[in-house]
Amino acid sequence: MTARTSAGISGEHEMPSVLDRELSVLSEDAFGHQYFSKALRSLVEGRHRPPFSIGLLGSWGTGKSTIKQLYLESLASDSSGPTGKRRRDRFRPITFNAWKYGGDDDIKRALLRHVFIQLGGDEVELRRSLYQQVAESAQVRRNLGEWFKEAILQNAASAFLFVLLLASTVGIFWFASYSLGLSNQLGISAVLSVAAIVGAFLARNVVDLRLKSPTLFNSQSVVTFPATSAEEYERLLVNQIETFRKARDGRSCERLVVFVDDLDRLSAAEMVSGLDAVRTFLELPITDASENFGVVFVISCDEDRVADALSRGRGRVNPELPGSVFTRSDARRYLDRLFQFRLEIPPFPKLDMRQFTEKKLRAAGSMVAELEKQGVRLQDLVDRLIHVGVQSPRNAIQILNAFTQTWWIATQRERSGVGSSAPGVLHKGAVTNHPLALAALCVLRVDFPDFYNELLKRPELIQEFSRVVFRREPPESLAIGAQYALKEFLATADGKIGNDVRTEHRQLRQYLSSLLDLRWPRSLQPLLLLAQDTISRKFGDRAAELNDAFVSGDIQGVLEIFGHHLDNDHLGRDDVRLLEELAEGLSDDTAARRVNAARVLAALAHRIPPEYRNGLMVPLARQMVDLKDIRTNVGPRAAKGIIGSLAAADRREVAAHFCGDLLTGQKLEWRLPTGETPNLEELVSDAKAAVELVLNVRASDGLLPPTESRLKGWLLTREVQASTGAQTLPFSQLENWMDEHEVHLLSFLGSDYAHLAILELANEPASIPNKDRMLRRLSEVYQSLAQGGQESRQVLWQLLTTQVAVRDPAGASSAWGEAGIHAALASDEEARAFLVALAARLQKDMEDGDDWALDWEAGANKFLDLVTRWESHIDPSTATGILPIITSWAKVDDTSAYMVRAAEILIRTDAAAWNGLLKHITSKSFSDLPWTSLEYVASKLGELTEEHKSALATQMNAIINADPVDVEAAEKYARFIATASSSEWSAAPLQGHVKATRVRTLAMSTRPDYLSAIYPAARILLEYAPKAQAGAFLKQLFEQAVGAPDAYPILHREMVGHWPKENDHTGAYEPGGIASRAIQFIRENPAVSGSGDVLKSIVDMEARGLLPESSRGDISGAAAILWRHSPSSVVTCIKDIGTFMMPADVKTLLTGKQPANQNTDDLQTIVDVLAEGADEQRLLSISREVLSVPAKQIGDHPDGALTLWLSSLLGKEKRTLKTLMEDEGLNEEQRERLLNFLLTERERVGLDFFIEIVPLVLARTSEAKPLTLMVNGIDNVLSLARTSDQRSSLVSALIPTLPDHSRETLIMVARSISRLGGKGLLERNTDVLDKMDAEQVKVLSNEFKESKVLAGYARDRGNEAAE
């Protein structure tokens, strides 16, 4: 066997390789295979008479195919001798590749088919013979005796059948004719006729009377079955050989040489079947003894493999074959009988294969030069490649290709890796600096693939193998992963590996022994994977140094390799990734190395960026579960970040251990990373960190039940004990943890948390970090308790009752808010206890608002809501408990309304408590009580006891008898009187107060201060005076007060709307006299501030019908007088007096002296009332009165009074305005004022009104001022005519006035007609034109120059004037 190097192998960019293929050129024979080829020729073409077989025996890769190919090439190229006698004519080679047909149902058929076809056989015919069942038809001739016998029988049978059928038919018809009585002659004729017809039918359709002649030949089917027996195989092959020898190409053939290749690559069964086929064909009777022809089989195989296959397959696979083969010795004896000649290829010398390998390496481009440049001898490299176990050139070529290809790829990747971060590249020298190590790995990859596969998984496996096998170290000293990997190669005893290799791996031990002196690189990963990530490229061999420092616990060494030993910065991403790779292998390493590595990771944990920390800390976290020393070194803070990547069960375990270490509430056994005892502050810090770690785990994974219990107990006490003392963490610390873990922690602590929070609210509310958040949590706890059973709700109300009593206002308000939410769940006792507690808390706010302040409004409302809801639960004890706060509310104006609500409930639930409340209120002076409390007493006056009423009367008597009067008390007193029930004032003890009030008022009738305060109540109490006493009291009172200008109006003010009618109960008090004196008072004292009240009083008397109609004039005059002094009172009274107010008084009011702070709106109100409902005559009278006074400025109006009055008429009675314009009693100035108003208010007046009055004004040519005003304002009137109809109407109104105008007026009117487009109407109105003189017509013609009609009129009038 030899090999070829690929073309262009020395090219700079082409990978070197050696092609493993048989050779046919002697010059390329590197191992002397040509001599074996010549030996084969001697055997095949020698003097031995065939048939026989030759075994070309040798291991795989020793060159069997090359020897065959060299022989065939020499046979094909030998052209010596005449045609037909040359070697290639005498020897016919056929090559059968058994491996190609492996897997067929029968290798015999494959061999037969191949030889058959190679000898020129028809493949279709062969397939029919071997695989198909063939059916064919054939003709067989009969003898004459059989033929004559069959002919006679066929014709006789037809004649007999015909006669029988015909006779039967004739007989039937004869019998029928006879039965019918037909004559003999007629019956015979009928029968004969029918017989003829029936005979013809039978001969045609039923019986074949033609002469029959049977066939002389019979058809037969011949079926040929597939050839399956050995005899049939022999027949097919012998027949084809005979056919071949008869052909031109086969006549000179002496020997048929069949090469069977790759037999040893078949399965055991196929290999046995192939050998049996060879044996069978060697025994074929191909020629006679006189013929010089035969078959020679050349079988290329590895005898050892074939013998092994025979020993395993013979007798079991095909027991029908002769001989019994059950062992390898039997197999070799069988092969000796099969192979008449054995041509064995011995192993090649190692030197030859090394020279061959060296030669190929030197042809592989610049590789040798690169190696020599590094000081590596090529011979040393070849010695590593061609080890003692290499037995064949093929093996050598495989190893050589593995090395050259790996080297080439590594070289390319190293070149690409310079300054690159691309994947799949290497740093400079990562592989090429270690050629001998690479060669050893290539040998392992080719010759020991199982070990190499394990080496890929565990690069340190070679060193571990050496430690156990060569250094005899105990296997238990290796990591678990190493023990598992070596288990396939080392002998085991009792399931444990030993120091000896398995028998089948002795060659591996031999080879690895030869590598003991080899200097391996620190890391085999680049040589195994031919790639490095960016981190490995960055650190190179230092990665191995880092691993040594890592597993030895050398923290400083690790930092030095990373270049961070002089700073405290975070490690880089590449640094972390390298540590991750190292940490991945810790799980199956020794305990000591794991602890050392854990120590390094613990020390570096704070220098690992948070985003990379979880993945790296996994190995360390797993160690913490088992070793407290590691937990001590790491500490709970670092552990919190480390355990993030662990499984949930592992995280729970870590949390459980830290909880057991630090959260016991007892004296702690804990150490610092230095191994020394921490002080209390350090211990507290670690305990806090442990809590955070445990809470994080609980949030994500939950905790084990014992851990849950321990954690809860510690959180409630929060005590840390050390040898030097103890410390309890404040509630604020619990709140901080609650802020972060509320989702799970709140439900975990539940009511215990609420109890702690309430205690903190009661004692140190200022220390709570976020009170609102804490109160919200309490609300959630309460909600959870409310959803539970009775036991939980009992706890709920205990907590709420405690909380509502705390000093902190937010805490108390939160409690009563929660109570309102869950009020339906409270039992009777729970409701009563809470109400009393809430009332007591509210009472503290009333008594000490500085220290116990709270939102009393919200609290009071909630208290009352709860009292209302739980009204049925209130018993005397509860009522007594809440009475103090209700009593306190009654004293304060802001809270008195709450007292009212509470009192209403008390009156229904506990009368005694209610009476106590009213006793307290009635005993207080009115000045000390808010009105709401007094109002409540007034509303309940009928339900008061005699004691209550007496106390009340005493307080009221004090008010009316005080001098000076307490104004505030008097006001409340008046309101009280107005609110109280009327029935109670007529009976004792209140009737005495009523009498006292009248007496005291008469005594103080001239005191305005007293009357202002007391008379409002006294006036109400008059209704409850004895019969006829009220009238006498009023008469006397007003007679006495009239002389006191300051006091008199007060009485009238209070009487407005309350003047009684004279009857038996009231008595006589002479309203007319009081009114006369009041009017006289107004006339004499119009400027007194209360005079307007006097007017209102007498107007009220008039409206009630208490005064005669004759008094109306006086009232009207009084109002006119009072206008300038009290305009508001006049405005108030105008609705009542407007209908009878005299026109002269109206003129006085509108045109007289006006108030200092004049308000035009008041005047407008007055005139609107006066105009409303008045008849036209009254309106005209008032208008004439207003016009009779010259114009006077009022507000923005120059002619104010007229403008206000006419404006009112304009909105109601335009007809009156037209009447005024036509009124002959008006003078020129008055009419001008009237027209001026109309033009000013033209939009409100409207065009229709002007169409009526414009002709009237224009017709009054004697009144120059209105006429001039109208002519000058005509444009304003024209602007109102916006539609064609309106313009036409206005023109029609203007045209009739034309004859009456002077030249100047005529010009203005004519222009107006022109602007309105009235030319046509003017031209058609001949009546008007006829009335006009020549001068007037001329003016019109000049204004309407385009009018021919007017021009004609002008000429006519001119001619008439000339005549």
TrEMBL record:
This is P-loop NTPase fold protein. Pfam families: KAP_NTPase. Residues 36-405 form the KAP NTPase domain. It comes from the Bacteria. SUPFAM superfamilies: P-loop containing nucleoside triphosphate hydrolases. Keywords: Membrane, Transmembrane, Transmembrane helix. The lineage of its organism: Bacteria, Pseudomonadati, Pseudomonadota, Alphaproteobacteria, Hyphomicrobiales. InterPro entries: KAP_P-loop, NTPase_KAP_P-loop, P-loop_NTPase. The chain crosses the membrane at residues 151-176, 182-203.
